[in-house]
Design a protein that fits this description.
The protein is mainly α. The protein has ten helices and two strands; from the N terminus they run H-H-H-H-H-H-E-E-H-H-H-H. It has one domain. About 50% of the residues lie in helices and about 5% in strands.
Length: about 250
């Protein structure tokens, strides 16, 4: 059996096992319907707090979440939130739903740190994301957080900043592409981060496929840019386009 500590950080297998989530949510229903969970996996080095050298977990989150926030705020209207996302069965709204629903209970269960509740994603996806993300940034900016530990039966003990970096910041990074592609915004990801994450995944190819939580790799040219190759490795189709509306 694949242990949670064998799965690269950021994997939604971590999200599913470690967090208590309601099976009634649309995002959960779509994962059941398609037989596997989202494949937004972003492996991380386990020895440090951030991919970029000398960057703190707080600053890393500020940078990555800030870009995701810009995309959330850039969705022009409610109709765009209902556009399909590259994750099978998800809409753009479900991308935000996934992030605001899985991590707060994971954090609270492992550290006792409660993030402020926000509005319902269906009613206000921008407010839901901003409330949760701003609350998490405040936690990371608090010097006392450096001494806190997240404890989970599947992953053991991890310093709180590192846990956020490994299991959530990485997830936000990858889902930025999903939201951007779903809503027609700039989908460029930082190539340095893409390269580090791809390098972390490639040695675990067989293990990841055997877990049943990752789609098949998508064929792309060998000389494709690192973002394209990373997306293809995790089963995202870099050529995915929004389906044309029914006539």
């Amino acid at each position: 059996m694949l242990r949670l500590d064998q799965v690269p950080a950021g994997s939604d297998r971590v999200n599913r096992v470690a967090a208590t989530r309601s099976p009634r949510t649309p995002a959960a229903r779509c994962r059941r319907r398609h037989g596997r969970i989202d494949v937004g996996v972003t492996p991380r080095p386990r020895g440090g707090h951030a991919v970029i050298e000398n960057q703190t977990a707080a600053d890393e989150y500020r940078e990555i979440a800030g870009r995701f926030t810009a995309h959330v705020e850039g969705v022009p209207d409610d109709a765009t939130w209902e556009r399909l996302a590259p994750v099978p069965g998800w809409t753009a709204r479900d991308v935000v739903r996934h992030l605001v629903e899985w991590f707060p209970p994971f954090l609270a269960g492992g550290t006792g740190v409660e993030l402020p509740p926000g509005p319902d994603v269906d009613a206000d996806p921008v407010g839901a994301w901003r409330t949760m993300s701003d609350g998490l940034q405040a936690v990371l900016d608090d010097p006392a957080s450096a001494g806190k530990v997240l404890t989970n039966p599947h992953i053991g003990e991890v310093a709180l900043p590192e846990a956020v970096s490994r299991f959530f910041t990485a997830d936000v990074f990858m889902h930025t592409w999903d939201l951007a592609r779903a809503t027609g915004q700039d989908e460029t990801l930082d190539p340095q981060r893409c390269a580090v994450m791809l390098a972390g995944m490639e040695p675990l190819d067989d293990l990841l496929r055997a877990s049943g939580q990752y789609g098949p790799k998508v064929d792309v040219p060998e000389d494709a840019d690192v973002q394209t190759r990373m997306l293809a490795f995790i089963g995202r189709d870099p050529r995915w386009e929004q389906p044309a509306p029914a006539s």
